[in-house]
Amino acid sequence: MFIFQDPAPTRFDLRFSIAGIPVRVHPLFWVIALLFASGSSSLTSILTWTVAIFVSILVHELGHAFAMRRYGQNSHIILHLAGGLTVPESVSWGSGYASIALTANQQIIISLAGPFSGFLLAILVLVVSAALGGTIVPQFVLGFIPFPLVYLPIGGGFLNSLFIALLWVNIFWGIVNLMPVFPLDGGHVMRYTLTKRDPWNGLRTSLLVSTVVGVLVAVAGLVLLRSVYMALLFGMLAFQSFQAMQGSAGRF
Length: 252
What we know:
- With 252 residues, the protein is α+β, with helices and mostly antiparallel strands.
- The chain folds into 2 domains: 1-89 and 101-178, no CATH class; 179-245, no CATH class.
- It is built from 7 helices and 8 strands; from the N terminus they run ββααββββαββαααα.
- The strands form 3 sheets. It has a 4-stranded mixed beta sheet with strand order 1-2-3-4. A two-stranded antiparallel sheet has the order 5-6. The chain has a two-stranded antiparallel sheet with strand order 7-8.
- β7 and β8 (145-151) form a beta hairpin.
- It is globular.
C-alpha cells in the first residue's frame, strides 16, 4: 500500500530480504499489529492475529514489489505504523540517479498487484483448509454479505484462529484497499485511469472522487460497522484529498 511517509531507520528495525527484495520492519509496526489484535479474547488469538497481520501486509507489499520488478523497477519494503510501504529505488543514469518511467497501465497493474496477492493468499488458505478436512462456513457481514470462515478438525485453536484471521485481513482489508480513495491502491488505480483519459483535469477529478468516497466510507464504517478506526482513517484520507484538491485549484 502506498501510504504516508518512509519512517526513519532505527536500531530496533528488523531487516531481512525475500527473493532479493529488502524488507525493513519498523518497531512501531508491532504496536499497530498488537492494537488490531488487542480485541481478541485470549493470548492465542492475539498471537495469531499479530502473525496474520504481519504475513498479510508482507504478502501485499511483495505483490507490489514483484510487479515493479516485472517492469524493471527495483524496490524495498517497509512495514511501519501505518501498515506497509513499497518504495521504488532509483537507478544509475549517467553521473547520477533517475527513476524508471512507468506507463499508466503499468502503474495500475502494480497498484492492483498488492490486494490481489492478498486475495490469492486467502484462496490458498481455503484450499489448504479443504485439504485438511476443514469445514468452510459463510458468515454474513451486515446481514447480507457472505464471508468465508473455516473450522479445522486438526491443529487446535491456534491453526484455526490463524486461518480465520488470514481470511479476514486479506479479504476484508483487500476490498477496503480497493476503494477509490487516495493514497490507497484503489485511489492510485482511479488516478492513473482518469489522468490517462483526461491529462488536464483527471488529477483534480480523482481528488474530488477520493474526497466524496472517503467521507461516505467513513460514515458507513462508523454507522454500519461501528468501527471508529475506519471512520477516522477514511475521514483523514478524505480531508487530505480535499486539501490537495484545494491546493491544485490554481494549477488547472
